[in-house]
């Protein structure tokens, strides 16, 4: 039994250590991204694809507010609502979707003060990544039901030639009313390595505990001298 338990414990401890190493790597990555999002914004130019993901940017252009889309099932401070997405046309001719923030419902967003003319915004550039989960591929454009952010699908629905690979999240309020409420930019990068490390460690401890209990109960059978 010892020959089987010892390698198993070593493997479990090794997996726990590996998760700790992954945790350190992930925390360093998240710190780097956080610094990128809070750094001085760079101009959003035609070379935006060379910018790293989650880069703080500044751009001048205008909102196409008659083309708003609303991602439902979004909460803020315990209240359900929607995330308001609006196409933004830059002075360089780029058309990109921008997450303008949270609103309790569509009507509040539609009734917000409308900005006419050009406006300079600060935002975070995000690279579109296919979202996993229960609502993957679950958007229903015909019914105006949006569960996930998909720039390509959103653009096709509105008949726009907006960027498919990236979108923006507004980082600072514009001179509009308080709705939509601008939320701090965040990442969708999970960091569960600490929990995983505890799981592997607890399994190693549990296995060792069981082995010691059995060893104390039946020492002669465990060392291979009998039976």
Describe this structure in words.
The chain is α+β, with helices and mostly antiparallel strands and 227 residues long. It has a domain at 43-170. It has five helices and seven strands. It has helices at 2-38, 106-110, 151-158, 193-217, 219-222; strands at 42-43, 55-63, 69-76, 79-90, 95-103, 119-127, 166-170. Strands 2-4-5-7-6 form a five-stranded mixed β-barrel.
SSE diagram, text form:
Elements: H1 2-38, E1 42-43, E2 55-63, E3 69-76, E4 79-90, E5 95-103, H2 106-110, E6 119-127, H3 151-158, E7 166-170, H4 193-217, H5 219-222
Parallel strand pairs: 1-2, 5-7
Antiparallel strand pairs: 2-4, 2-6, 3-4, 4-5, 6-7
The residue fraction in helices comes out at 25-40%
Mean pLDDT: 84
Cα distance, first to last residue? 12 Å
Please state the oligomeric state of the protein chains shown.
Answer: single chain
**Which blocks of ≥5 consecutive residues have pLDDT under 50?**
none
**Total beta-strand segments:** 7
What is the general shape? elongated
Query: How large is the share of residues in beta strands?
Result: 15-25%
Which descriptors apply to this entry?
alpha+beta; 227 residues; elongated
Provide a concise account of the structure shown.
This protein is an alpha+beta fold and 227 residues long.
